[in-house]
Amino acid sequence: MFAKIAGTGSALPERVVDNFEIARNVDTSDEWIQSRTGVRTRHIAGEETAVSLAIDASKEAIKDAGISPEEIDLVIVSTVSAEQLLPCLACEVQAAVGADNAAAFDVNAACTGFITAYQIAVGQMKAGLAKTALIIGTECLSNIVDWTDRGTCILFGDGAGAAVLKADTTCETEILPMVLHADGRKGGVLTCGSGTGNGKSAYGRYVQMDGKEIYRFAVKEVPMVIKELLSLSGWEAGDVDYFVLHQANRRIIEAIAKRLHLDESRFPMNMMDNGNMSSASIPVLLDSMNKKGMLKPGTRLIIAGFGAGLTWGGTCLTW
Ligand code: UT7
User: Fold this and answer.
1) pTM (2 d.p.)
2) Where in the sequence numbering do the catalytic residues fall?
3) Taking phi first (over 0 means left), then psi (-120 to 50 degrees means alpha), and beta for anything else, what does residue 297 get?
4) DSSP label at 115?
5) 76/93 Cα distance (integer angstroms)
6) I want to staple 137 with a disulfide (CB 3.0 to 4.6 A). Which of 29, 114, 186, 192 is the partner?
7) Is 248 in the pocket of ligand 1 (CB under 6 A)?
């Protein structure tokens, strides 16, 4: 049994906000933001919502996969920044795209969310419970960012990416290695309350982040996860065409490439144009690589994410 991505899609809000606009509201500069994060612009939702972006991305992925919505038996949405708590976004997507035969639920594993959704879907397939899954990472982080905090508001953007995943039951190859990790003891370094708890939550209404601590954590753990996946798969680093990482910060990705003694050109990036979109970063990047023709049958990828929780993990994938 082999699980493959059969189609991808993405949706970004129309409004583009550059660093100069941010610098009009907080004490920062285009030079500081670009040199410390790599980000030049990000899309910020106006009329769009986490749900509407998820639906648009999903419709594109379904079209790209060439399937009918009735074939989908599982819809999983990863998000931390939806406008609503209920109903879950996956149910809204299910209704909007007409995936009438699908189960639907959301997951929250922050920037590791898309990888978590992928791994749950593959697990359901391996258990014989699903054959075609629609997985989505969608974020309107502008909903939960404090626009007066220069330590966070410079980094994030809104968007959604989706993928249709198909099980090939005729294939004898086993599913490729996947790993997930968590360290809840360090959860305090990146927090956000729901805003619905009458002050009962230990966390503030907006994203609060110890950026330096997350930076250190990512640069230490992600190379280890990549090595873990290489060891489990038997692949050499040279066998991997691209390392598709969560787009947190350009310097984090450069440091990870350096630690692994790998050329940066094998680490595609999109944070320059989109900022850090948490669980949407990886699927939006996969979709742009797909549209550019970078992903051909047999292309080998290692995908890895890391973020709040703390959570981190990755997966080997053959296109
Ligand atoms: O998506 C997963 C979760 N998030 C992440 O992965 C984020 C990971 N962390 C980061 O990307 C970086 O830590 C940030 C981009 C958030 C911050 O960059 P940094 O290089 O770690 O900066 P810093 O917080 O250490 O601040 C360095 C200096 C400080 O000034 P002093 O104390 O050296 O005088 C800050 O006050 O830069 C100052 N600073 C700024 N200056 C201009 C902090 N933010 C800004 C700003 N503009 N926006």
Assistant:
1) 0.96
2) 111, 246, 276
3) beta
4) H
5) 9
6) 114
7) yes
